[in-house]
Design a protein that fits this description.
heterodimer; A: 137 residues; mainly alpha; 3 helical TM bundles of succinate and fumarate reductases; 4 helices; 0% strand; B: mainly alpha; elongated
Amino acid sequence: MSLVSPRRGPGLDAPRSTGQRSNYELYAWLFMRISGIVLVFLVLGHLFIMNVLDGGVQRINFAFVAGRWASPFWQIWDLVMLWLAMLHGTNGLRTIINDYAERDQTRFWMKMLLYVSSGFIILLGTLVIFTFDPNIG
Amino acid sequence: MATAPVGTLYRGREGMWSWVAQRITGIAVFFFLYVHVVDTALVRVSPEAYDLVIATYKTPIVNLLEVGLVGAVLYHALNGLRVIAVDFWSKGPRYQRQMLWVILGVWVAVMIPGTYYMMIHTVEALFGSTP
């Protein structure tokens, strides 16, 4: 196996972070580990209840959702899971874009697209949990 | 083949491939999450709209895809815990390879009954229930 520099060109010779230093990447790294541990319980619990327990996905319908979200426990569970999973995934994709998109312009616009779509999904999910109406329609 | 560099955790062999798989499963799960929030949002449209989209989850092909999704999430979770052990446990880097085989063993042990319970209804619907 030959040793190949992960990014050719000026990338490694001219690091972008000159001047002020920030701990942003350290906090992002730490957030991935802390949110990851919480998500192991929230997401695997969610998957077990929804896909395995009592016939799994076959029993899920509007009435099932209404029954669950009548309880603040499941509302909070889903809200925390939504926010942590979206932030964890968005930061993961941010890292991947930073790794593979070589042109500054490409990197910038891909991250903008990522942040706008993630913001939209977090907002939509939060709104749905808080405004759910079991008597709709 | 040249010898692999000594002491590098992430280049070649188990260390690198577990990292590649972590990225691929992460991307797949994240894109599914977008779709899943949108399909759940249909509860704000009408019960009929929600039940209609959930019905697609109960079809055989999507049911099989769900098993794949659960497999991806489970790998990402278990390997994520392994990465945390590598980062924070003083002996983590030394045992990273053994830990990978342990989590792969756990993955298989969970996925066998998991696949059974997730697919049982689909298999019975397709091939008829056994007495």
